[in-house]
Amino acid sequence: MQRALAAFLILFGLVATAGANDNYREPDPALTALVDAPQQPASNVSPDKRWLAAFEYKWVKPLEEVARDELKLAGLRIEPVTFSRSRSSTYDAIVLRNLDSGDEIDVDLPEDARIASPAWSSDSRHLAFILERDDRRTLWLYDVADAQARQLSDRPLNGVLTARPYQWLPDGSALLVNLAANHGEELPQPGLAAVAPVIEETNPDSKAPVRTYQDLLETPADAEQFEFLATGQLARVELDGSVTELTEPGLIASFAPSPDTRYTLLETLEKPFSYSVPYSRFPLTSVVLDADGNMVETVAELPLAEDIPKGFDSVRSGRRSIQWRSDVPATLVWAEAQDGGDMSAEVKIHDRVFTWPAPFEAEPGELIATERRYAGLQWGNDELAVFIDWRFSDRKLRIWRIEPGNPDAEPVLFNERSYNDAYNDPGQPVTTRGEFGTQVIHVFDGDKVLLTGQGASPEGNVPFLDRHDFSTDETKRLWHSEAPYYERVQDVLDDSGNRLLTLREARDEQPNFFMRDLDADTLEQVTEFPHPHPQMTGISKELIKYQRDDGVDLSGTLYLPPDYEEGDGPLPVLMWAYPLEYKDSAVAGQVRESPYEFNQVSFWGPLPYLALGYAVFDDPKMPIVGVGDDKPNDNFRPQLVASAQAAVDVLTERGIADPEHIAIAGHSYGAFMVANLLAHSDLFAAGIARSGAYNRSLTPFGFQGEERDFWEAQDVYATASPFFHAEKIDEPMLMIHGMEDNNSGTYPMQSERMFDALKGLGAQARLVMLPYESHGYRARASLLHMLWEQQQWLETYVGGQAD
User: Fold this and answer.
1) Which is deepest, 9, 426, 664, 800, by most CB within 10 Å?
2) Which pLDDT value is given to residue 676?
3) pTM attached to this predicted model
4) Are 77 and 159 spatial neighbours (Cβ–Cβ below 8 Å)?
């Protein structure tokens, strides 16, 4: 394997000097320490609000773990040994804290076990989770009363299609699971006898535009392996560990018990499979089973969906987004497109939403019709639910209050805005456990609800808790974060919204949980998570606002090294950005950060280089705005350069930067931005582009926020593609890419071909291909080498360490 890898690196010109680049490198110790710093634990509050479960984990993995065998099938990456998705997140330990007494419990688990998918039962008596050991993932329970964890069943679970292969029954009495039906059997291996031509044919009567997907099925042997690994069997597991198989083996895509536990909605994939689209577009059958697994009703039979019309708000035809209404015993809800799935079709009604109560004998009833695309429902009770619709062309989103028990009542518009408009976001309804143990909107005192949100404003995010009365349309602010802290609601601990669990932080204070009592005006710290990088305290942080030459408001966050003082003179600067598309210039420059957030110095972004004396301008806004009939990308290049020019100017005017010593960097679409700015401006001394795409003719059916295909907008594709303008790049560009990148459009070939172009044109470029890494990098060796490459590039071409 090592010999083959070395040959690969040499073949693609990745070894610039013999013996110089053939090993992983490590950066300055200050940067290495950031890779090894502890992570903030994930958390989950029990439904009875008595327990806070903290899940400790290490995001960075050993190289040998990232390099574990995986198969790339039907748009998925599968770990065949454990019948689960590869590269999925796992935890290392569980710590429970009693919110009343403050007592902590370390859950005793087998050594070196990997924990996944924790979930509380609705009665808060048990915490379920998956434990991976050896070749299987099995279901475990922690019993709160006994303070003990135990394996509930040794039957291996299948997490290929159902990423969380179990569901609690809403009353907490048992669990439904997806068993790995073929675990222990030998994986089919393609042999010479299985080799056959792979044949596809177009249908002139049906267009099939698809985005640039990766990891698709390519051969009949792939399809056989996918079917083998994805086959599961639905079963019920009692709290005593007994298992009852409910169905025959099949390709279980999802399953959900009804709120009253009498039924299960089961969705399975069917054949034929496709070589053109991922598993999510394969034929899908939705059925209702009774509690014993017997067939009750077929809800939908959707065919293969290779021909969904292009457009971000286009959908497949037929009954879709089927779910249970969470506030009643057993009522199905779904949406059906009235436009053939094509939002560009000229019809008055684009979607209708239907309900169908058990025993499913009457005809389904229409709940609501919308002239935009259905985007979701949140259930409260018969008198109050929240309905959301949207449309991509104008980026508009609407939120409605409806009465599920009275479908003839006119919906009441609660909020309408561009979905890019953070300043007018009213927040999300607070939910609670309803009478069946399911999540519902917390409705109290008639028509009142609680809303929590980020509270974006020109001064930065100010998280809040509001009380809204739908009967009077009045909103009262109950609480908001106050400087110099950044604090947001994590959970509401009582019915009225007086007792809150919050996450609170400041620039040099790491996030921790607090109990806040609004009536008593008290604040009590609950956790004491360690500071991940105490050596990096004292960083200066400032939100800077400025304007583009066309009047669009912009902002970015300036970070300065701890010892820097005003008047010390310019520093070498690393600017890190990511362009976004808008249809409204008024919202394009909105501030979506807080100046009081913790200075989290992640190895992933630009902040590590503060330790080496660089100034960092993080997330300077690079909005691409299409006003009126113009699409955003019609003027991509001039707007991008104008935004970058404004950012350089404001730093220069402040005396922070010398224009000759500024680097531009970004990841994914940010890498696309880097190459464009190096090609079409002389604003930067060098660029760092990670995991990017540079030739948009290789993504011909759209990219990022571009809906038009290549043949509709050839000039746009050519103008925006830096590969087509590589001869104009005369600044050094470092490209880094994971060899196993599976992100749509960012094939590793994109960086390889861009490097070949720059090499052939005599430009200064360097390409680093990281073995085993996908779109984001996880291996410690890879991350350290990434930091080393970036450090060397900056010190060579931008300015080195400040004096």
Assistant:
1) 664
2) 98
3) 0.92
4) no
Q: How confident is the model at residue 762 (pLDDT cuts 50, 70, 90)?
A: very high
Distance in angstroms (rounded) separating the CA atoms of residues 190 and 438: 45
Q: Please, what sign has the CA dihedral across residues 329, 330, 331, 332? A: positive
Q: How confident is the model at residue 403 (pLDDT cuts 50, 70, 90)?
A: very high
**264 neighbors 234 (Cβ within 8 angstroms):** yes
Q: Phi, psi (5° rounding) for residue 767?
A: -115, 125
The answer to whether residues 628 and 615 touch, using CB atoms and an 8 Å cutoff, is: no
3 state SS of 727: helix
Task: Say how far apart CA 713 and CA 735 lie, in whole Å.
Answer: 28
143-177 tens-digit pLDDT: 999 999 999 999 999 999 998 999 999 999 999 99
CA distance 698 to 744: 11
Spatial separation of the C-alpha atoms in residues 687 and 484, rounded to whole Å: 35
The token pair at 785 is 């080498």
The answer to whether 445 is a known catalytic residue is: no
Task: Report in angstroms the alpha-carbon separations of 197 from 214, 407, 431.
Answer: 21, 54, 54
Return the closest-CA partner of residue 82 out of 150, 166, 215, 180.
180
Q: Is 732 exposed, middle or buried (0-12, 13-18, 19+ CB in 10 A)?
A: buried
Q: Which of 327, 342, 421, 741 is catalytic?
A: 741
**What is the spatial distance between Cα 252 and Cα 248, in angstroms, rounded to a whole number?**
10
**In this structure, how many other beta carbons lie within 10 angstroms of the beta carbon of residue 90?**
18
Please answer whether residues 407 and 428 qualify as being in contact, where contact means their C-beta atoms are separated by less than 8 angstroms: no
Q: Which residues contact 241 (CB under 8 A, 6 or more apart)?
A: 152, 153
Q: Which amino acid is at 307?
A: D
For 196-345, list the strands marked E by DSSP. 232-238, 243-245, 252-257, 263-269, 284-290, 295-302, 319-324, 331-337
Beta strands in 484-570 (DSSP E): 486-492, 499-506, 509-517, 522-525, 540-547, 553-560
CA 585 to chain centre: 26
Percentages helix, strand, coil for the chain (3-state, rounded to 5) are 15, 35, 45
The catalytic position among 555, 668, 691, 721 is 668
Strand order in the sheet with 365-370: 319-324, 331-337, 351-357, 365-370
Q: Take residue 215 and report the two structure tokens written for it.
A: 């990891």
Residue ranges with strand state E in 270-383: 284-290, 295-302, 319-324, 331-337, 351-357, 365-370, 373-381
Active site residue 741: yes
Given a contact cutoff of 8 angstroms between Cβ atoms, the answer to whether 294 and 327 are in contact is no
Helices 669-680 and 636-653: angle between axes, nearest 10 degrees: 80
542-571: average pLDDT: 93
**Amino acid identity, residue 456?**
A
CA distance 279 to 229: 13
Annotated active-site residue in 43, 425, 649, 775: 775
668 is known as an active-site residue: yes
Candidates 584, 571, 577; CA nearest to 557 is 577
Q: How many helices (H) and strands (E) does the chain have?
A: 10, 48
Q: Which residues pair with 691 in a beta bridge?
A: none
State the Cα torsion 585-589-591-595 to the nearest 10°.
-170
104-106 and 580-582 beta bridge pairing: unpaired
Q: Which residues of 212-249 are buried (b: 16+ CB within 10 A; e: fewer)?
A: bbbbbbeebbbbbbbbbbbbbbbbbbeeeeebeebbee
